[in-house]
Amino acid sequence: MDTTQNGQAKEEAAAAAAAAAVARDGTVCGYESLDRLLRDNLRPEVFQEVSRLLIGLNCGRTLEAVPLADSAKALSSECNFDIQAFGFTADKELLREPRVVRVGLIQNSIVLPTTAPFLDQKRAIHQKVKPMIDAAGASGVNILCLQEAWMMPFAFCTREKRWCELAEPVDGESTRFLQDLAKKYNMVIVNPILERDTNHGETIWNTAVIIGNHGNIIGKHRKNHIPRVGDFNESTYYMEGNTGHPVFETAYGKIAVNICYGRHHPLNWLAFGLNGAEIVFNPSATVGELSEPMWPIEARNAAIANSYFVGSINRVGTETFPNPFTSGDRKPQHADFGHFYGSSHFSAPDASCTPSLSRYRDGLLISDMDLNLCRQLKDKWGFRMTARYELYADMLAQYLKPDFEPQVISDPLLHKKSS
Amino acid sequence: MDTTQNGQAKEEAAAAAAAAAVARDGTVCGYESLDRLLRDNLRPEVFQEVSRLLIGLNCGRTLEAVPLADSAKALSSECNFDIQAFGFTADKELLREPRVVRVGLIQNSIVLPTTAPFLDQKRAIHQKVKPMIDAAGASGVNILCLQEAWMMPFAFCTREKRWCELAEPVDGESTRFLQDLAKKYNMVIVNPILERDTNHGETIWNTAVIIGNHGNIIGKHRKNHIPRVGDFNESTYYMEGNTGHPVFETAYGKIAVNICYGRHHPLNWLAFGLNGAEIVFNPSATVGELSEPMWPIEARNAAIANSYFVGSINRVGTETFPNPFTSGDRKPQHADFGHFYGSSHFSAPDASCTPSLSRYRDGLLISDMDLNLCRQLKDKWGFRMTARYELYADMLAQYLKPDFEPQVISDPLLHKKSS
């Protein structure tokens, strides 16, 4: 494996090629996104039909391209990040005005080598992300979400505790940095950090801080489900969150945050829905070998099942650490987590979704969404009303008992020899 | 809309064209499946990468093509139905032998016009499906599932109660027909019927009867969640099931049945998982306009989240009824439900899935699956252990109270005017 610091440079070079390339081993690589791969390789009419099947477009609804401000486009080309904007449509209602909000997601790679002084690493990320936030502000974004633990490399693969030094209190340096921008752009910002809880014995949490559009801190949510899979050694660093499933009522709608691995838990998505979320963000850090085929499935399923919008964010790039580590897979030690494949995107409650951002490059994805669509889909499909929650409250209560017996009906002829 | 009886003939003609055609309005139509559309229109190396992203293949695992018995192939060409077979792979374990079972799904259109005498309609379907079951038997299928209410047209759009005459007791004509075949082929058969419950006031249920490999009836499950969407007027005919979430321990593994609309309910999928299901079938009847972009998402999400296999079945064809009906969408009356788009497929707990059967033609889809894969994925991802069910048992219990207050944290500056 690549244990040098040039992984990022290589990926940027690969990304510079607009279309897919074929590697020496015959595999396709270097393409920007699934959408781009299909668009570049299918006739337009076939691409349209594939899109209808895959991402629910042209199926009653269309996805509109939203024009971008020139200043945002200038920042994008000057600072070398992608910017894309779409608009989900909803029916016009008779008694409610449309409630269109503009929502943004930012995905980014780290900046300095992980061997650089910690504070330099953090501030370099701040400075890299700032023009992306400026572009969101210039584009009139109302609610913006950054990626999981955006202010640091995703160092939890290493199991080295020194990375805890990067943790911050809820009102720490990264929050303050974003509070100024939130106020400047009248924008709600979701700020996922590694949290140091000074009031509770300096414990560590994986936390999203919700910053209001006046720069105030509305509240926080702590990651509910912690992975123990592959190199995701996060359970070495912090415990399951203790903040329940809060929904934050902001100036632009009711939002919630399902952090990373929580996306594998349908009950976590459900609880945010029951508390009234209209948009649930899923700031993540996940790698291709492990999860790429799951990535578009889980967020879209959550949007469909819970009649809300989902904004999914994954970081990009390969982060190489100073000291190699093993992965419990019998392979030799190595110093990186694998490739974080980006692919941030939005899913809507009507089963449609936007194309994804690049698998390689930093990017800002913007989407307009009429929050009225949530209730329209509830009325259409009636999932909440047909859900029979009483069955499941009882089922879970039974399941929790140590002597729970599953409901199994055995074939009485199970051990009869076949004639 | 087409109110004649020739809808099926037209679809069969369209299906005869192997590759996609472009209709007069510029849309692509007549293609067999998404897999075929992509395979026919992409270079092999691009198709391979798209498959990796979309259906999780080549991502650590591959899907093997399984050779078919000549007698099965002969039945397929003689009786004009597709037959495809694949095999999911699993790791070899050190302490358990592989538990490979061969599982089949059958999708089919109806046979006679819906104006024909009821008994003729039912028996014509029996006779059409028989060679498909014979082909499954000749292929060594261990567990076979038919589509929802396979013994009748999906007449619930009409709201006419006379279709209730087609309902049968659990041990009725269609069950007896399948019991003989189950015994003959030493095969478990899942038999989804419209049930007449003679012991409870002759009420109607949407039920799956589980027939053991000795031809015995192991038990039944009644559809838990009933739709009220589009033309799905099933709630006019029967109520929510009262059989819980049973898992049937058969000679070939633990199976359960999530009937049709229950697939939109993550809790329904979850409950079958908590009761220990290794394969959950989803016999369905659903139409393109309404649900096609959701179809591959929900089943795969269930397989991932619950670490089991899913077999999804949808009927094919357009069924035209004698008396037109309206749809509550302000459009003129019409006499069909729309196109049932088939596309039956299997999903595995590792996020992979098989290609789908045709959108137009009858078909038998077979897949080998090593049930050991379920526990392997549980050990890898740990979803059960990280699920925190106690949080959700409590959440649901609270939610059920009429005076439930959602957990909402409001921005105290919500009504402050922006500076």
Commentary on this structure:
The structure is a homodimer. Chain A has a single domain, classed as Carbon-nitrogen hydrolase (Nitrilase/N-carbamoyl-D-aminoacid amidohydrolase, 4-Layer Sandwich). With about 425 residues, chain A is an alpha/beta fold. The first copy, chain A, is globular, with a radius of gyration of 22 Å. The longest helix of chain A is centred in the N-terminal third of the chain and has 21 residues. Chain A is built from 11 helices and 18 strands. Chain A has an 8-stranded mixed beta sheet with strand order 3-4-17-5-6-7-8-9, with helices on both faces. In chain A, helix 5 runs parallel beside helix 6 and helix 7 packs parallel to helix 9. The N terminus of chain A is likely disordered. At the A-B interface, strand 2, helix 2, helix 3, strand 10 and helix 7 of A face strand 2, helix 2, helix 3, strand 10 and helix 7 of B.
